[in-house]
Amino acid sequence: MDVMRIAIPVYDDRIAAVADFADTLMLVAVKGGKEISRDLLLFSTKVIPVKVGVLSEQAADILICGALSRPFAAMVIYSGIKIMPFISGMVEDVIEAFLSNTLADPRFFMPGHTKGMHWCSGRRCRRHGRTQG
Amino acid sequence: MAEDKKSYTDLIIESIADGIFTVDLDWKITSFNKAAQDITGLVKEEALCGTCREVLRASCCEAQCPLKEAMLSGSPVVNRIVSIIDANGENRSISISAAPIRDSSGRVTGGVETFRDIGSIEKVHEEIAKGYACQDILSVNNEMRKIFEMLPVFADSVSTVLLEGETGTGKELFARAIHNLSPRKAKPFITVNCGALPDTLLESELFGYKAGAFTDAKRDKPGRFALAEGGTIFLDEIGDISPALQVRLLRVLQEKTYDPLGGIKPVQADVRIIVATNKNLESLVRDRQFRDDLYYRLNVIRIVIPPLRERREDIPLLVDHFIERFNKIQGRNISSISEAALSYLTRYEYPGNVRELENIIERAFILCRTSQINQSHLPRLYAHELSDETEISHTGESLKKVEAAFLMNALKRNGWNRAKTASDLGIHKSTLFRKIKSLGLNVPHSRK
Q1: Do the chains contact at A75 and B374, CB–CB below 8 Å?
Q2: Chain A closest CA to B335's CA: distance in Å?
């Protein structure tokens, strides 16, 4: 069974409000729907491609985060990493919700979640939803 | 009477051009005016559901919250410049002020924050840098990432930087990024294209002149070095300057002084120098066209920017970026590019690099009258400049197939060695493994 690596920019015990400005990254390894390890990493660089590089280096499969800028979102998606943006709440609650498949509960949504998801997933649609032409 | 006063106050708050919101002691937003909605991109109803950090999304929210500071100290915080990410994912600069709110007994019951948009970073840079900002350097390439990782270190240093790269690779973007990350960021960033001016003009342009230095010199004119004082000067196409000017530049680097034309005493220069060239300076030195002492002075920090053909994985990312950019600039709504058009673009060699790709997309915007760019909107790219490694035709193939063929070619070329292939492609090993897995490639064992 494959190990899934979840990356979460955090501040103290919460999801960081903006991934671009987050200083700490939590990495959670999950296997068979259970958490098997957890690490904290420095994520303080101001240079977005370096932040994305950290995610790639750590072989993150999915990024769960708060708000983020368009360039950051684009580079994460093009690095082959899935993204669940505009999430807020306590880290423990969010991880638990992710593992139990209930992260779509609106209590985890940041204000403006729908608008954010629109441009964030719009880009993804563009990449994966092209038609022949 | 009290009701009237409240609605009057509300009216004033709504009509103020600065964003204003208030919070209670739990940081929940309790009011949010129209300007705040315009700046953050969130409507009032959305904002009233959240805390201030979720709504404002500023760089200071977590560790240096001005509201928290004002509420704890009881004193206002004034005009702090921070970045926010608005609801559309744009990075904007705002100026924030914060103050505590007290009840009639003087107890702090919440806080008020006012903020002013000092322009989206994109807008500011469009004005001062022809549309380019640090955030515009988009790449998922491994070689590029190594450069990005070093940028803050280079920015902190005072040493001269030599940027080498083909035309259109974005050397000026890197120069600007180094300046923006450096302690000199609040001071000027001055660009000079050394190849665009004749020698005599370049000298007066760089160092300025004094009144009477020549017939038409009626008054003193400061040069670009003087304009860049305290900041950074970016000398593009440095390989094109004459031997005479090379000597003068060497003096600036060695002694940190220069003489304006017609001046009688040297002027001190506190300027960081970044130079760029699309030529091979080393071979110019060998051919005695460039002074070796100047070359060694310039070659303290050397950054070589890879051409686009060596980082093809960035092409889809850049195409999307340019589509978004031109949509915004031209008020269009093109949503995508077809698979065939993209696979065609990924096979081109790009002698003009990222700038050429940008021009191709700009041209496509002129021709495209639908919501999707397809191959008929692209120029005919010369066959010899199309990569012939893949045998896939550029029509009717899915991106996945092109990507798979491209990876198999690269793996074959590197003896099926995955680490070597990842390094050859400039991507991380784990990215290659992920791609092999997602594309379902059957890769033979590597040759020993």
Answers
A1: no
A2: 7
